[in-house]
């Protein structure tokens, strides 16, 4: 049984005539009739009977229709999947990252992607999760990796990993016990993402904790980049909040929060949008890197 035989069978069933089906497929009617006869011989049952000047399906023919349609659809899907891989020889990835990813995840993912797909250009941008979410929602980026919570209007959000946040200080005395929000309100805080303070996911969590406890967090220093906050804290100019995985060689002591505080990473795409093969492959690599 060959795929074209199923295609000819479905065309004949649709048009009710071998000649009409052959005309629709731009082929000779005897060739179509011969292929359908061979299909019937292989199946051991007739699929059509003569009806006046046309043809009608037999019971066997009616049973075959959904199976033939499914086989042809799966064959087309297989062709499309291979075609998508072939298109990865060109194009551009448009992907957004939250700010901290530029110091940990971004370089490794881009390096692996370029090694595998050297002809594909990469645009990996973003300073903050709120900015990335806006860019994906507006169509300026195809997809992104963000920290929750974000405004999810118009977006599909798929959480993927959770990492614990710690209180960071150059003074070991300040990290001898877990940090509570009441003590945090009295601490000399250095906070990053100054431009996105109202929407930054980490600040949103801290602000909600403080409001629940009836206190207010007032940073003594605000900067744009997480690494700048770490460097200032390492010099003893204040304490900050961050991920241990991003400390690198900075000599900062750590204390967990009580209750624990986490950053949840999530991949976002525009709702019901179909990703380009390049961006989908890039996102798969990013997800493996997180795992």
Automatic annotation (TrEMBL):
SUPFAM superfamilies xref list: Periplasmic binding protein-like II, Winged helix' DNA-binding domain
Q: Which CDD domains match?
A: PBP2_LTTR_substrate
Extent of the signal sequence = none
Q: Which PROSITE patterns match?
A: HTH_LYSR
The protein's UniProt keywords, in alphabetical order, are:
DNA-binding, Transcription, Transcription regulation
Q: Does the record bear DNA-binding in its keywords?
A: yes
Name the Pfam families for this protein: HTH_1, LysR_substrate
InterPro entries, per this entry? HTH-type_LysR_regulators, LysR_HTH_N, LysR_subst-bd, WH-like_DNA-bd_sf, WH_DNA-bd_sf
GO CC annotation terms, alphabetical: cytosol
Ranges for the HTH lysR-type domain?
1-58
Similarity field: Belongs to the LysR transcriptional regulatory family.
| Protein name per Swiss-Prot or TrEMBL | DNA-binding transcriptional LysR family regulator
């Amino acid at each position: 049984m060959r795929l074209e035989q199923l295609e000819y069978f479905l065309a004949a069933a649709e048009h009710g005539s071998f000649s009409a089906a052959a005309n629709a497929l731009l082929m000779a009617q005897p060739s179509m009739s011969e292929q359908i006869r061979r299909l019937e011989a292989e199946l051991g049952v007739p699929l059509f009977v003569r009806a006046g000047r046309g043809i009608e399906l037999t019971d066997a023919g009616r049973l075959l229709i959904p199976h033939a349609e499914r086989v042809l659809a799966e064959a087309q899907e297989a062709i499309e999947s291979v075609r998508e891989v072939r298109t990865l020889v060109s194009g551009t990835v448009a992907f957004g990252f939250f700010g901290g990813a530029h110091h940990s995840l971004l370089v490794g993912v881009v390096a692996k992607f370029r090694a595998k797909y050297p002809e594909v250009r990469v645009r990996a941008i973003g300073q903050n999760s709120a900015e990335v979410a806006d860019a994906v929602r507006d169509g300026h980026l195809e997809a992104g990796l963000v920290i929750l919570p974000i405004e999810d209007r118009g977006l599909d959000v798929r959480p993927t990993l959770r990492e614990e946040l710690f209180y960071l200080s150059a003074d070991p005395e300040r990290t001898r016990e877990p940090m509570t929000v009441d003590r945090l309100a009295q601490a000399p805080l250095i906070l990053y993402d100054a431009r996105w303070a109202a929407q930054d996911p980490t600040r949103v969590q801290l602000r909600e904790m403080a409001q629940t406890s009836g206190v207010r967090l007032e940073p003594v220093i605000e900067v744009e980049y997480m690494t700048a906050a770490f460097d200032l804290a390492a010099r003893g100019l204040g304490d900050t909040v961050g991920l241990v995985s991003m400390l690198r060689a900075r000599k900062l002591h750590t204390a967990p929060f009580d209750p624990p505080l986490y950053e949840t990473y999530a991949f976002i795409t525009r709702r019901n949008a179909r990703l380009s093969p390049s961006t989908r492959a890039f996102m798969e690599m990013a997800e493996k890197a997180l795992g």
